[in-house]
Design a protein that fits this description.
Elements lengths: L3 H12 L26 H8 L12 H12 L3 H12 L44 H11 L4 E2 L1 H18 L5 H18 L8 E2 H10 L17 H13 L2
Helix pairs in contact: 3-4, 5-6, 6-7, 7-9
Length: about 240
């Protein structure tokens, strides 16, 4: 019987036009060096690790961010501008029109980074920037053996994550984390599932988070239709409806 991976590869190859394909010869994966900086966001880190964003993670402009988000995830430019403008509020570069990826770890005042991450520690515990095995293990435990992450599964995992945070972190800020966590889920499900129905492919999502690498070698390609902020917000609302 064909494996899930082989079926996925065959389907992907049939559906993705060659002209739209990302390939690792053009955008090779390279892990960051000791002098490179990365964000508390695995998707942005993957873009940097493939050279779609500057590999050193530094001096990112809006133009660079918009181009990378479109090439890597087909996120519409005005949507990237709306979300990306928040990132520039955290800039430590001395130039308000640029930011470094590690600037995004800023926790207070709240801009983007938040408590209750799928794969990072809360700021209260110190390192809110690096991938955290325990946080990610809790996410995986909530997903269980499901190969498709539906709205209901996403909502249940989000609830478990927030309950854990409230029970263990005396400064847990659910208010700031709520909207951001839902929007993040909608973007993840859209990139690795369907732009309307969600249904994210768990294998692809795990690959992104655990490797900070686009799952090109698994046959994945960016969505063939633009991802928009309005659609992501609508999906976030659907996840919120089943919390």
């Amino acid at each position: 019987m064909p494996s899930f991976k082989s079926l996925y590869l065959a389907t992907a190859a049939a559906l993705i036009p060659l002209s739209a394909a990302l390939d690792e010869r053009t955008y090779p994966f390279q892990p960051p060096t000791d002098t490179d900086v990365r964000a508390p966001c695995p998707a942005l880190n993957a873009l940097a690790n493939h050279g779609l964003l500057p590999r050193d993670g530094k001096g990112i402009t809006m133009e660079i961010l918009v181009a990378a988000a479109y090439k890597g995830f087909t996120i519409q430019g005005d949507s990237t501008q709306a979300l990306g403008s928040l990132g520039f509020q955290t800039s430590t570069t001395g130039n308000p029109s640029t930011f470094n990826l590690d600037d995004l770890k800023q926790h207070s005042p709240h801009v983007l980074e938040h408590d209750g991450s799928m794969s990072r520690n809360d700021s209260y515990w110190g390192d809110n920037l690096s991938f955290n095995d325990q946080a990610w293990a809790r996410t995986l435990a909530s997903w269980g053996e499901n190969e498709v992450i539906t709205f209901a599964i996403a909502a249940a995992e989000r609830n478990a994550r927030f309950e854990y945070g409230a029970a263990t972190n005396p400064e847990f800020d659910a208010v700031s984390a709520n909207a951001a966590s839902l929007l993040e889920y909608s973007l993840i499900l859209s990139a690795f599932g369907d732009l309307v129905e969600g249904n994210g492919n768990a294998t692809l999502i795990k690959y992104l988070f655990e490797n900070e690498r686009l799952p090109i070698e698994l046959g994945w390609q960016p969505p063939t239709s633009n991802m928009t902020l309005a659609a992501a917000q609508a999906m976030a609302g659907q996840i919120a409806a089943v919390l």
